[in-house]
Amino acid sequence: MSWILQRTMNHSSQGGLAALEQQVQRDMEVLNLPAKNWVPRRQGVRDVVVIGAGMNGIAAAGALILKGIRNIEVLEAAAPGQEGPWCTYARMETLRSPKNLTGPCFGIPSLTYRAWHEARFGLDAWHALYKIPNQDWQDYLGWLQKTLRLPIRHGVTMRAVQPADGLLRVVTDTGEPILARRVVMATGRGAVGGMFWPSFVPGDLRPGLAAHTNDLIDFERLRGKSLAVIGAGPSALDNAAVAMLHGAASADVYVRRAQLPQINKGRGTGLPYHYGWGDLPDEDRWAVMTYIQDLQAPPPHETVHRVLRLGVDIHLGMPTQSVRREGDKVVMRFADGTERAHDFLIVGTGFLVDMDQVPELADFAPHIARWGDRYVPPPELVRHDLAAFPYLGAGFELLPRGLTAPPEMKHIHLLNYGAHASFGGIASDIPAVAIAGERVALAILRGLFREDFPKLRAELEAFDEPELETTPFFVPRG
To answer: Please, are residues 165 and 31 in contact by the beta-carbon 8 Å criterion?
Structure first.
């Protein structure tokens, strides 16, 4: 049976998703995909374990299978339909990117988001669409998982990756160790250090009086309450909007800057950056990183309109100096000396990058090369937060700081936000997710081919299929 989800040809309707799935099957057959498994089997060992079944995990797993690396497994902590941020802490109404995203489609038109949307909702709905609703994107990713029959185990949490005599041991909460030749960590934005919590906000305010934008927040508790939000990024504004939709009495967003950023320079990078960023000299990559970071990105205009429509107040030029608890209130003190009290605080300060704070990689963390180890920028471009990013190899693999690093470390591929400094947005943003999956799959393919070349060469020498047997020129073996 084909690896593509089979559908009976006598289905009552030839339209919709059933017809699209038949088209996917046809496209795969025409392209001779997936390739047959060519990697010599090792008893009790997976060739690749992918951690995470969100869009990056799908991109990596699908690309591997298409290339004939089929002895893989995908581990996902969440339940089906809850992978990634789209229906959990991503609280915008729609994706922030344009609708013409192809998604992790592997270059196959019938696997694109547009093909799925038209099949489910119709062509007119596609033309009327402005941006993709979060739930629809989540449903599309779930459809890809099923249609491609990816070998996913949901409800399994990875606890650690450890060296194991040339292999990697993946330790899970089920207690069973999984041995693998390669591990791909498709674990999202918060997986390289967790959420960033500013020092001027006491940590003991959580969870009763404060939360991070990426926490699971019970917004019903904020009904009739006064909310403060620190930060003007999209997530900060989206959380303020959701609080108002749940009946908060007020939401005040406090912004350090005197004006919001105006241009999203990241959207100006585009296709050549997606393919070429990782091959630029370090000084060029660093210069582009600092340029984009210093300018910051504005929240999407529809997000701003949403919060204004809901009555959220945005206060520019009001950096928060300190926060304290007074009874059941949160008191904000600002740089100008003024203070305001609120019932609850949401902190929108993004994610921390610190490989020493990734418990799953504790055995490797001291040995992982950072950008600060490999590149010294000119004084005016020193950025300590960027220097903390891991310095990755050409296939997203971890590289060593020194000679004492475990040799197995280079077989861990970081397909998450940790790759941002080395490769730009292809491992953390939607537009280039397919490029990231392809890049990591090709790197793994080349590595496995090198390691297994003696066996593959022996198979080549054993290949014995006479081509001329039916012709007068056939020479029987004597």
So the answer is: no
Q: What is the pTM of this model?
A: 0.93
In angstroms, rounded to a whole number, what is the distance separating the alpha carbons of residues 34 and 297?
A: 39
What count of other Cβ atoms lies within 10 Å of the Cβ of residue 446?
Answer: 12
CA-based nearest residue to 334, from 323, 325, 345? 323
Q: What are the structural domains of the chain?
A: 16-192+353-456 (3.50.50.60), 203-262+298-347 (3.50.50.60)
Compute the residue count for the chain: 478
pLDDT tens figures, 446-468? 999 999 999 999 999 999 999 99
SS3 277: helix
Residues 6+ apart with CB under 8 A from 220: 246, 247
pLDDT tens per residue across span 344-380: 999 999 999 999 999 999 999 999 999 999 999 999 9
The string of DSSP codes covering 205-257 is GTTTTEEETTS---GGGGTT-EEEEE--SHHHHHHHHHHHHTT-SEEEEE-SS
Instruction: Look at residue 3 in the predicted model and tell me its pLDDT.
Output: 37
- The amino acid sitting at 151 is P
- Quick one: pLDDT band at residue 101, thresholds 50, 70, 90? confident
Nearest to 60 by CA among 456, 470, 444: 444
Q: Is the pLDDT of residue 420 over 90?
A: yes
Mean pLDDT of 66-72: 98
Q: In sequence order, which residues have a C-beta less than 8 Å from that of residue 115 and are 6 or more positions away? A: 20, 23, 109
SS3 114: helix
Query: What does the alpha-carbon distance between residue 232 and residue 239 come to, in Å, rounded to a whole number?
Result: 11
Q: Is 177 helix (H, G, I), strand (E, B) or coil?
A: strand
Asked if residue 185 lies in contact with residue 412, where contact means CB atoms within 8 angstroms, the answer is: yes
Rounded distance between C-alpha atoms, residue 74 and residue 51, angstroms: 6
Angle at 177 between CA 171 and CA 178, to 5 degrees: 100
